[in-house]
Amino acid sequence: MIPLLESGKVRHVGVSNHNTEEIARADEILGAAGFRVEVVQNHYSLLYRSSEKAGVLDHCREHGITFFSYMVLEQGALAGRYGPENPVPEGTSRADVYNDVLPQLRALTDRLAALGQAQDASAADVATAWAIAKGTSPATGRACATKRARSSERIR
Length: 156
Fold this sequence. Notes:
alpha/beta; 4 strands; 4-stranded parallel sheet; 8 helices; TIM Barrel
């Protein structure tokens, strides 16, 4: 990676699914050559907070590293897209992960929707705004990401 950075073929370094020790080690190696880790991308949502619990978010804040959170909506499970009456299609890995917990998620998604309704926002907007309020930059896979970002400003 360092030769690519030195040649200008690569301008920035980011890592994905790394823990704090791995990020620090990559930064140490890059730092010896005058470069640094600039971005970390990890799974992070209201349901999956291991990066927060493990100190990755704190490490990123302390070192000026941008944290991109992916799966903020847990593949639609936190957006209210799926529920006990509308489960994730069977035969998919998402169905294996989410369908058994959709009844428990109903209370959360209903609360997210109620919070959003007061701000003319959706449950997905609230879940995304939460991730932004935690200091992350959500990497969403939908074209409505811009709308969510605008809605998150109203929700804060």
